[in-house]
Here is the input.
Amino acid sequence: MKAVNKKFKRAIVLKGGGIVMPYIADDCVAALDQVGVIVFGLSIRVLSGQTFDSVRDETREKLNEIKPDFILSMDAGLVRDEPAFFEDLGIPVVAWFVDDPTIDMTPEKMFDKLMIFSWDREYIQILRDYGCKVVEYLPLGTNPAKFRRTPPTDPRCAPFACDVSFVGSSLEKQSIRSIIDNEYEPKLREVMNECIRQHAEPPHTPVSELLNEALGREKLALVADNRRAFEGQIEIEAMMLYRSRALNRLARFAPHVYGDDGWPALLDPGSVFRGPIVYDVDLPLLYSASRINLNLTKSQLKTSVNQRVFDAPACGGFVLTDKREDAELLFDTDKEIAVFNSYDDMEAKTAYFLENSEERETRARMTKRHVLAEHTYAHRMRRILEVIGDYI
Here is the structure.
């Protein structure tokens, strides 16, 4: 049964790119429909070598045809690139960031009817300081029509049964290790390697702090653009090290690892590389069948949790995740999801929850009830409608 939304009747969701983003956008489309909004998913594609001018008129025609009461843009991709176009529409434009919003987002790109939601509380004050009038916290959620429990005894779950599973990128394809080793001058290479080692250790001291200390000690300086790129690469290398080190610490539990083909070179004997997984078909089966769904968060998520912390519990799966402020804000970590603070803590809790199946299953049931009651995309869309309504 659809909820009745009387104020906002029509909306467009700009889907964005990437691997997971289009799935989240589709979940938002379904959730808006669920709360009573007539919603249209729209992908605006600018071909390589062309600019937005090549699709500007076509885009305006589509918008005029649909006549939306507001636009929801995932990560504000096109809104970030063409703010003047969206400002001229004169309707509310909602940008929901589930990635670093400071990339290419500047004070000059803010406009009166732009409203920003951030999945990470770290960025809220930054965006307010940029001049955006409406900036709100909005964590990710789940789509329970997609992520739902399949009994582990169901034959479809059999290929995914395991004690521990992890799904995610190895980040190996983004690594520039050979360049660091062969092209960086010695002092800079030493600084980078030191920061990588330290940032790979939970709870991941911010790269900026590590770099300030190391550069100061070595009496080195980086110009602003080079520094940002340097920090970003340290984060990638450190997260690749963090994830592989964490999984190798759990090798005795034979974790099943799903992701890209960079993993085999990083995993110690004992881990089982399973290759890629189909997001909205096989992933719910894995979450249902795996005794422990391990979550290793990228450090770009400063306070927030990713969608796995909602999706796996919706399937009745138990989650063991690295510590984030929002994990403890959104869940009771003594009774629902479990949180670890270090490699040793992760290993000890993995062993504990595999041995204590009754507690693990009780936590999983409690987390599922909580997620379905408070953390679906329908809940998130209702919150967006409330904020737009208050502002308009």
